Amino acid sequence: MSRLVAELEDALAEREATGLGRRRHAVETRRGARLTVDGREVLHFGSNDYLGLAADPRVIKAAQEGAARHGVGAGASHLISGHFSAHEALERELADWIAPCADPRALLFSTGYMASLAIVTALCGRGDAVFGDRLNHACLNDAALLSRAAFIRYRHGELDELRRRLTDSRARRKLICTDAVFSMDGDIAPLLGLLELAEDYDAWLVVDDAHGLGVLGRDGDGRGTLAHFGLASSERIVYMGTLGKAAGVAGAFVAAHRAVIDTLLQTARPYVFTTASPPLLACALQASLAIIRDEPQRRLRLFALIARFRDGAATLPWRVLPSETAIQPLVVGDNAGALGLSDALWQRGLWVPAIRPPTIPRDTARLRITLSAAHTEADVARLLAALTELAERACAP
Question: In terms of Cα–Cα distance, which of 244, 291, 3 is closest to 111?
Answer without folding.
Answer: 244
